[in-house]
Amino acid sequence: MDSFQNRVFAIVKKIPRGRVLTYQQVAAKLDNKNLARAVGNALNKNRDSKVPCHRVVRSDGRVGRFNRGAKQKELLLAKEGVKIKNSEIVF
User: Fold this and answer.
1) Could you tell me the domains of the chain?
2) How far apart are CA 83 and CA 79, in angstroms?
3) Quick one: which of 84, 91, 25 has its CA closest to 58?
4) Cβ atoms within 10 Å, residue 38
5) Where is the Methylated-DNA-[protein]-cysteine S-methyltransferase DNA binding domain (predicted)?
6) Which one, 2, 30, 85, 87, has the greatest CB density within 10 A?
7) In a structure prediction context, what are the per-residue pLDDT tens digits for the chain, which is 91 residues long?
8) Active-site pick, 35, 42, 53, 63
9) Pairing of the two strands 88-89 and 84-85
10) Per-residue confidence (pLDDT) for residue 30, from 0 to 100
11) Do residues 83 and 89 lie in contact, with contact meaning Cβ atoms separated by under 8 Å?
C-alpha cells in the first residue's frame, strides 16, 4: 500500500461512528481538496474493516459508491444513526 492510501486511511479511521465526511473534506485534510477523486480510488481498494470507508460520502449529499455495494453502505450508515432518504444524507 502506498503512502497516499495510508494517509487517506488514517484520516478515515478518525471519522466517528454516526458521522460522515465528503471525499473533498478528506482530500482537504490531505491539504489538497482537488484530490477528492484520488481519495475515492484509494478507498475503493480498502479491504481492512478497521477503515470505515462507508463514512465517506459525495459532496452533493448522495451516499456514493462502496466496494461492497451502495445498498450495504446505506445500511451501515443507517445502523450508525446517519439519516438517509432516497440515497441522500439528511443533514
Assistant:
1) 3-89 (1.10.10.10)
2) 9
3) 25
4) 17
5) 3-82
6) 30
7) 679 999 999 999 999 999 999 999 999 999 999 999 999 999 998 989 999 999 999 999 999 988 888 999 999 999 999 999 999 999 7
8) 53
9) antiparallel
10) 97
11) yes
